[in-house]
Amino acid sequence: MLLKLDHPKLFSEIISIISELVLEVRLKVSKEGLRIIAIDPANVAMISFKLPNTAFSELEIEEKEILGVNLENLKAVLKRIHSGSILVITREENELKLQIKDKITREFSLALIDVEGEEKEIPNLEFASKIEMSSVDFSEAIEDCSVVADACSFISESNKFIIQAKGSLNSFKSEFGDEVSIVAEDAKSKYSLEYLQKMIKATKTTDKVKINFSNDYPLKLNFETPFMELSFILAPRVENED
User: Fold this and answer.
1) What is the pLDDT of residues 148-157, one digit of tens each?
2) Strand partners, 233
3) pLDDT interval class at 116 (50, 70, 90)
4) Which burial class, exposed, middle or buried, applies to 28 when counting CB atoms under 10 A from its CB (0-12, 13-18, 19+)?
5) 3-state secondary structure of 144
6) How high is the pLDDT of residue 240?
7) DSSP letters of 55-120?
8) Full-prediction pTM beyond 0.85?
């Protein structure tokens, strides 16, 4: 197995984001590319990450490999990548070899681990509301909500999308209309800001975010470029009306 990334900074950033939600993952490597599917320890959030074979300048593999890795260790190595670095990933028995090539070649070895739990599959979800909007605007709205509460509500109408939060004393509301793409029915669902604040770190990877939800239903966030697809599924927080 050999994987070569000529521009590994994006990979490094995404591994850092995922590591805030899960500690260990299975890297699935095949001729199609690299894939991660994982659920956080509290079973509240699911992460799906795809790096297609077109993202690699070289991809050599005979059969699918599943590599168990500790994300904190992997993140620490990837932080050593500089602008202009090239990353080469290989496997030698029970170790993952990561070569960072700049002026010199540095090689790190990480022990492969057994990751507990069953293989994860992305659930088949049907959404009433589908929003596409600026990643920056979405991130700002989530951060604004966190000033006043620990959860926020997503509300959709046929021509309107609202993100709002209500604390014991204070509240916040952001309303979007013509500046976002809306294909939606009337729907409302509430989500944890603790998780959303971790997920919106992915907004720096893309200009747009796709937001999918329904009434009291899981949220799906999609961040896509020609070279990767990162998505999060977040369970709703079902409570009495504010």
Assistant:
1) 999 999 999 9
2) 46, 220
3) confident
4) middle
5) helix
6) 54
7) G-SEEE-SS-EEEEEEHHHHHHHHTT--TT-EEEEEEETTEEEEEEESSSEEEEEEE--PPPSPPP
8) yes
**122-140 pLDDT, tens per residue?**
999 999 999 999 999 999 9
Query: In 138-195, at which residue ranges do the beta strands (DSSP E only) sit?
Result: 151-157, 160-166, 171-176, 181-184, 187-192
Q: Which residue has the higher pLDDT, 179 or 232?
A: 232
Q: What's residue 33's pLDDT?
A: 97
One-letter amino acid at 13 equals: E
What structural domains does the chain harbor?
A: 2-111 (3.70.10.10), 129-234 (3.10.150.10)
N-term to C-term CA, the chain: 53
d(CA 45, CA 21): 8
Q: Which H/E stretch holds residue 221? A: strand 219-225
Whether 137 and 176 have beta carbons less than 8 Å apart is answered as: yes
Over the stretch 42-85, which tens digit does the pLDDT of each residue have? 999 999 999 999 999 999 999 999 999 999 999 999 999 999 99
Torsion angle in degrees (nearest 10) through CA of 121, 127, 129, 133: 20
Q: What residues pair up with 86 in beta bridges, in sequence order?
A: 101
Query: 2 CB contacts (<8 Å, ≥6 apart)?
Result: 58, 59, 60, 61, 88, 89, 90
Within 10 angstroms of residue 160's Cβ, the number of other Cβ atoms is 15
Tokens of 178: 């013509």
